[in-house]
Design brief:
The protein has 490 residues and is mainly β. Helix content is 5%, strand content 45%. This is Glucans biosynthesis protein G.
Length: 490
């Protein structure tokens, strides 16, 4: 059946109603695609659509009454994104039902177009992506659960949340001098859900200069929206700088790093920290920053248990932004299934002067390259929600404040909360702080009556060069908290 799905002369995909679709179909397509030279995606559009600006593109709306599965009493619906603006690539989308794949056809009548969108003749312009809706917040309304739009980007929300950070299918050569490669999803297959189902399945085919890959996403909306991801990568070349389970976010400023920004809001960010649960069972918390120069941090590990870009601050008054609702942005936690071997969680912090730019990236980079002509399989789970899925018993750092103490010192004030701190004898609590290339002094620990937790503060000498810091609370030889790690840079 594969030849009917793959039309190499157009580098596009087609399906007839009698084509079979099975568990290995997209994997077989990816393997076949990787054996051929990469072909650039179809970006052909009428002249006016090539040059749409942001407002023009936003005015193009898919009509909800034309949604896939609307009126069929099914628990999910799909709506589609028009091509234009940044999203010129044609993405082929199919419905899978009863073991058969049927292409979903573009129709001009499925969209409403703003007054400023150029007129065009009815033609097959195709789709740029799609979004999935379900009755997540109330039974009589189908909320947007997730969206796949642009290169290999996708994002999701949990109950009561608004969109924030994004995930990607794969990152390649991020931060390299030669430039990053952005592979893209070329085709999707949406399995028709059964009546009463609590999850739905999305298959995706990714292609880029370095590799092709297949994905199977099982999406379960709820208080935490969960994606079970099965990925198979087929490199065309040896991939030494592949990033697995990549995620991207925005940190403009916060209490640890205002960066001389003059703004009425106390903080602006989609995520405030990177959390890691490493293979040794150690929990790390790394507050994010908006540095003056590019900062790259790598946390070497063996068989990681999870990592994620988190939004821990959930109080509106910490942001004071009525429109953006940063306190409702999701955290994203990645949980590997099985052993992922040696590698490291890599964090990129990129300088930005505007909050519209994603300037944070995190992913897992395997120690060993992904070999050409091979098959590399990974399974993992993405948790979109208010927190990581399994909060540990150790106290967590909830706020990191940093300020000046004279010309050559900085004051660090860290707040913690957690069950491990309740009822603890204050005399037995100790703050353990270390710093590379600096002297630490005036370490103070004290209960915080306003949070019900504790506060750890200390001063650090600064000499105009970056300082690596590490801190935690202990009682005797036992840790009371996760480990706070931070790179202070001038």
């Amino acid at each position: 059946m594969l030849p009917a799905l793959l039309l190499a002369s157009r580098s596009s995909f087609a399906a007839a109603s009698n084509d079979g679709f099975g568990p290995s179909t997209v994997r077989d397509l990816a393997r076949m695609l990787a054996g051929k030279p990469f072909e650039a995606p179809d970006e052909k559009l009428p002249g006016g659509f090539k040059d749409l600006d942001y407002d023009q593109y936003r005015s193009i709306r898919f009509l909800p009454e034309r949604a896939l599965w609307r009126g069929k009493n099914l628990p999910f619906e799909a709506q589609f994104f028009h091509r234009g603006f940044f999203y010129k690539n044609r993405v082929n989308i199919f419905e899978v039902a009863d073991g058969k794949a049927t292409e979903i056809k573009y129709g001009k009548a499925d969209f409403s177009f703003g007054e400023k969108v150029p007129a065009f003749e009815d033609a097959d312009l195709g789709f740029a992506g799609f979004r999935i809706h379900a009755a997540m917040n109330r039974p009589d309304y189908y909320d947007e659960v997730c969206a796949f739009l642009g290169a290999s980007y996708f994002r999701a929300v949990a109950k009561g949340q608004t969109y924030g950070l994004s995930a990607r299918g794969l990152s390649i050569d991020t931060g390299e001098a030669k430039g990053e490669e952005f592979p893209l999803f070329k085709a999707f297959w949406l399995e028709r859900p059964a009546p009463g189902a609590t999850s739905m399945v999305i298959h995706a085919l990714l292609d880029g200069k370095s590799c092709a890959a297949s994905y199977r996403f099982t999406v379960r909306p709820g208080d935490t929206t969960v994606f079970d991801v099965e990925m198979s990568v087929y490199p065309r070349v040896e991939m030494t700088r592949a990033g697995l389970a990549p995620m991207t976010s925005m940190f403009f400023y916060g209490p640890n790093d205002r960066n001389d920004i003059d703004d009425f809001r106390p903080a602006v960010h989609d995520s405030d920290g990177l959390a890691i649960f490493n293979g040794k069972g150690e929990s790390l918390w790394r507050p994010l920053s908006n540095p003056r120069d590019l900062q790259v941090s790598t946390f070497q590990d063996l068989n990681p248990r999870g990592f994620g870009l988190m939004q821990r601050e959930r109080n509106f008054f910490a942001y004071q932004d009525i429109e953006s609702s940063f306190e409702k942005r999701p955290s994203l936690w990645m949980e590997p299934i099985g052993d992922w071997g040696e590698g490291g969680v890599t964090l990129f912090e990129i300088p930005t002067k505007e909050e519209v730019h994603d300037n944070i990236a995190a992913f897992w980079r395997p120690k060993n390259p992904l070999q050409a002509k091979g098959e590399h399989n990974y399974t993992y789970r993405l948790h979109w929600g208010p927190d990581s899925p399994k909060p540990h018993s150790l106290a967590r750092f909830t706020r990191s404040g940093i300020g000046a103490r004279g010309e050559d010192a900085r004051l660090f004030v860290l707040d913690l909360v957690g069950e491990s701190l309740k009822g603890i004898d204050p005399a037995g609590v100790k703050g353990v702080v270390t710093a590379e290339k600096s002297e630490v002094k005036n370490i103070v620990t004290q209960p915080n009556p306003y949070t019900g937790g504790w506060r750890l503060s200390f001063q650090c000498q600064v000499k105009g060069e970056p300082i690596e810091l590490r801190a935690l609370l202990t009682a005797g030889d036992k840790p009371l908290s996760e480990v706070w790690v931070y790179r202070w840079a001038p």
